[in-house]
User: What shape does this take?
Amino acid sequence: MPKLPPGTLRKLLRTGLGLLLILLFGLHGLGKISIPLLSRLENSVYDLRMTLTLPGGRDERIVIVDIDEKSMGREGRWPWPRNKLAYLVDLLFDYYQIRLLGFDVVFSEPDDSSGLKLLESLAEGSLARDPPFLQNMAQMRESLEYDALFAKSLSHRPIVLGYGTRLDNLPSTGQLPLPVLSPGTYPGDVDVLHRANSYTANLPLLQSAAAVSGFFSTQSVDDDGILRKIPLLMRHGDGIYESLTLAMFRLLMGYPPLEIRTGSGYHAVSGDARLEALQVEGFTIPVDEDATVLIPYRGFYGSFAYYSATDVLNGAVEPDKLRGKIVLVGTTAVGLLDLRPTPIQSTFPGVEINANLLAAMLDQSFKQRPAYTSSLELLTLLVTGLLLLVGLPRLSPGYGLLSTLATLFLLVGTHFYAWQVANLSLQLATPVLLTVLLYGNQMFFGFFLEAQSRKRLTGLFGQYVPAQLVNEMIDQESDFGLGGENREMTVLFSDVRGFTTLSEGLSPDQLSQLMNAFLTPLTEIIHHHKGTIDKYMGDAIMAFWGAPLHDPQHGLNALRAAMAMTQAVETIRADFRARGWPDLKLGIGLNTGQMNVGNMGSRFRMAYTVLGDAVNLGSRLESLTKYYDVSIIVSETTRICAPDHVFRYLDKVRVKGKQEAIDLYEPLGLAEHQSSACLAEHSTHEQALQHYRDQVWDQAEAGFRHLLEHYAERKIYRLYLERIQYFRNHPPGSGWDITFNHSDK
Assistant: This one.
């Protein structure tokens, strides 16, 4: 057998290894073999893609009544007596007038907490001949049958009970509802559906009283323990049952029949159709062949309004907050074990997962993997792999790298387009890793094994290229990004008002002590809240959040720092008065937006700083604190970062150098810490503002004048009264958007 030339052998090895990679990746994509590394990478990419594309915002249609630590502290440990739950149900429907109620908890054990059994034993024993006792007991019996009271509250109301399913073979408890389908009427492959071997269901009395029930299950948790999808149908015995969210959705639609849509998918078992979607009254829910659906997370924990169950029970929640809403009763208390690891957060309440599913059913916003996705992914692997395998050996190292990067960019861009626009969940890590490995294969065989033939060329080039220049090029490559990186960040500017005047009369030593006395604690606060000091400008501080380390809560942390700084100034003032130093008044501006961050400057001096229009706007906001006589002004983008805070709307302005008008807000603090007087002032202010926007000058003036009478120190109310007086004589017209132009920086 003739000996192959080294070059030919290298080519055969390179091609053979490349084809083997394509074959292995293709078989993995078809489910014929399993490559754990690829599965883990796909899961990680899916999680990242999900996190980066969260739609965000709060869905006001669905609220969660939370059995939280606060509720258990006030109402007692779970489970609560059923008469209390009956009262909760009656309150929700009769007082709060909710639309639909779902229980993400199960009631499998009878409630004996009323003491009825003890009374019955006494009636049959020592007190059997005590007529007054027997008469009182007969009168009290109905009020002491807590399960019956709860069942009565469930009857004839749109309520869905939940129950748990299990894989173990332990005895089942409770009573299942009627199945929605039987295997004989199911048009798909029933064997691929998730199967429950046992269950923990509700008491028969409660099950028969409720309109409908649905299961909650985590059987589709991935190998890494993350909950990315969930079954909507499950098989047990001779029946097929629906999930809690599917049951709630159907009940919301009037509980129409469940329609099954099937097709001849690639993975279909011979003779059986592949399940593709569930249909309810014209709404389509795309599912996999095992009836699982990808959980469409709206956002991080708190994307739906939470109300503590104890607050609902005690009427502390305003009726408008719940009227006409879909309500889920669940728990976030750690001890009740309903916190799940998800792609977006390591601990996520199970009840909010159900809320996300229900919202997606209403919005038709599910990500899906139709039957053709496997063929599409296989085609992507084959085309990408073969083109790289054939094309890379014909390209120079530079063009090979560019082609590989272009391929990666095309793969990522196409998959993100499919995810965002077509709602398709396609494999991304598999083709990306194949591309990288094929490039590495080419690099290894095409370049590293040819090192001997290239040593001579390298030596020749080394005679002409100075070592210092080579080292400088390597250093510059390692410092890629010094020119700046664009990120969403939050910037803070603070300044002591009238500092030049305040510092007059102080000696240089006293001035130095004064500056250290307030700059040091303010800097500590910024660092404590994960901020980065950009620079000190005399008495002013510039800081930013979101770099060098990424901070997903940069806006919230910056706001917390600003509010802590204003509180610290109060302490500093007392110390200054004790020393005989002048009083301090701090103004702070906060803005969130896209900024360029990195090492900037010259070869003589570099500084890690931020630049951009968003930074300039933050500086403008700080200067406006003097005009409005407030301590902190934040922009609309920063306000959005702190949904749990209350803000006073100040103005809509156009600052110097900016064409676009911006909304200004003054932060008041956490909503839960606001007094009733503060909330009342805030409400009156919002009403007066609305009259002002609508040009109803009399009502606007009355509102602001009322506020000024009670809060004379608020300059904003005087400003609006002055503007109302002006606009009475100079009407702004129908196209007025209330924008005020500031000519000063």
Notes: The first strand starts at residue 59 and ends at 66. The chain has a mean pLDDT of 83.
